[in-house]
Amino acid sequence: MSESTHVSSLGMGDGLHHQVLASFPLCDITEEDLTQNPQFCKLLATLAQHVDQTGLTVPLKTELEKAEQKLRSQRRHWLRSESLHKGLQEMIQDHCIRKHHVTVPPDQNLFYETLEKCLLVAQCIRLLDPSSTTNQDQPSVLGLSPQHMMDLMPSEKDVQRMKQGLPEELEKHLRKSCFSLLSYYQPEWENESERLKTSKLSHLAAQLDKEKKRAESLKETCRENTVLLQRQTQLYLSELIKCIQLLQSLILDHRLRIQTDLDGKKLEYLEGKCELVLQKIKTEMVEIQLDMYTVDSIAAHRKIRERLESDLKACQVEKHSVELKLASFEILGKEFEALAEEYCRLRQKIEMNNWALKEFTRCSDK
């Protein structure tokens, strides 16, 4: 049984491939990979029952959710304290700016000075107080202790007065900050009445949470579309490569099939061109001959040729007779060869003496 038949025997077929791809969206695998590796596809399908889309097991996912819930709780507690601290600091800064522009009542100045001193002392005490992870025996900063900082606190009376007026002032500041946030979120609400702003402000958290969930949903959809686009891109590129390979094979087959006809046509063309060139060369040669040789020169050349041919025949006859004589002389052997050489030497000597005698006679006549 083949592997594809084995996958079909599971009763899932293509549905198994889609289930695996949906269970592991972060994996860079395609349906073709699962088809070619059915055992691996079966392993992923079994594994999907024990892990989520991020690859975490069910127990680990539960522990992670508990840890995240605890972290969110601690984060809310920290944000509550940090927001309160930042709000108090903003109140002090606003007061410092306001007192440079308008006259502030003395009791309000005392309120903010007491608040600022209390914040500074609390901050110094937090810095001087070692945490649970710090060695308790380490020396303190500049020999200071939290008790030294407590001595710098304002009077108890001023502190109590500040604490009594703090909730109201803090509420005013937070209300102002919330109205600023509301105006930033919806600028057209800035000119609304305070009562209407307060009503809309009570629904602002729900609206922001709704938009946050919508943004997260859009982000998740965008991520899914990105994964889908990547898979479609891979599939498109794979199909495109197959089409290119098929096109290359078709082009190669077509080229090989018509190459013989192209070569035959090219050979015929070259043969015809060569024949044309040869005919042109012959034509040029005939034109040159017609320009060089007139009727009289051709007749003279014909007579010269006849005379040369007759002289050639006479020379050939003479050559033949000389060859016969030489052949008869060769019969006499080496002794005749020595006589022939001596004869040639004497003939040369006689010729030299005759030439010398002629020269001497010519000089004597002068």
Automatic annotation (TrEMBL):
Pfam families: HAUS4. The keyword Coiled coil applies. Keywords: Coiled coil. GO terms for biological process: centrosome cycle; spindle assembly. Residues 298-325 form a coiled coil. This is HAUS augmin-like complex subunit 4. Transmembrane segments: none annotated.
